[in-house]
Amino acid sequence: MKIADLKKNISESIYKQILETNEINENCTWLREAIARDKIQYEDIKLKNCWTQNEILYHDIQLWVSFNELLQMNLIHEVHDQSLIDHSEILRTVKIIKRNYYWSSMRKTIDQYIWNYYVCQRSKTSRDKSNDLL
Fold first, then answer.
1. Range of the domain at 97
2. Pairing, β 101-102 against β 62-64
3. Can you give the pLDDT at residue 65?
4. Of all residues in the chain, what percent carry a pLDDT higher than 90?
5. Does residue 98 contact residue 91 with C-beta atoms inside 8 Å?
6. Which of 39, 47, 67, 84 could join 27 via S-S bond, C-beta 3.0 to 4.6 A?
7. In terms of Cα–Cα distance, which of 75, 77, 95, 103 is closest to 15?
8. Which H or E run contains 58?
9. 11 occurs within a structural domain
10. What pLDDT was estimated at residue 44?
11. Which among 110, 13, 1, 5 is positioned nearest to 58, based on CA atoms?
12. Considering the domain boundaries, does residue 132 fall inside one?
């Protein structure tokens, strides 16, 4: 796994936050300890594909994004709101994030973010002059 691949599609600051939070988050610490003791499961998380390297938690080849909702939202925002991504494509956003990152209930979190994004966009008053009465 190349570090450059993990940093694709997100800013350096989000990447650093993910690493720092991964190291200090209490739940990530418990997961690392469970992995070190060869546990099969921690609470509702199956540890079969989890591993650590330099005290950083991974799932398969993805960097584990800790149990930090704000950090998860920032990551989704970075990927989803890029101009290159068609905002209607939930699956594409999931695919891009899933390529390098993982957290429990990821799909649910991404769906929720995008749904809320569209509700917000639809509720805003249009400022486009072409929508005015003639």
1. 3-125
2. parallel
3. 94
4. 45
5. no
6. 67
7. 75
8. strand 56-59
9. yes
10. 83
11. 1
12. no
Number of domains the chain is built from: 1
Q: Cβ(132)–Cβ(125) under 8 Å?
A: no
Task: Please classify residue 54 by burial: count the beta carbons closer than 10 Å to its beta carbon, then call 0-12 exposed, 13-18 middle and 19+ buried.
Answer: exposed
Q: pLDDT for 39-72, tens place per residue? A: 998 888 889 999 999 989 999 999 999 989 999 9
User: Is residue 85 over pLDDT 60?
Assistant: no
User: What does the pLDDT read at residue 109?
Assistant: 93
For residues 101 and 63, is the Cβ–Cβ distance under 8 A? yes
Task: Let me know if residue 86 belongs to a domain.
Answer: yes
Q: Is 29 exposed, middle or buried (0-12, 13-18, 19+ CB in 10 A)?
A: middle
Among candidates 26, 14, 112, which has minimal Cα distance to 63? 14
DSSP secondary structure string, 71-118?
HHHHHHHHHHTSTTS-TT-HHHHHHHHHHHEE-TTHHHHHHHHHHHHH
On average, the pLDDT of the chain sits at: 81
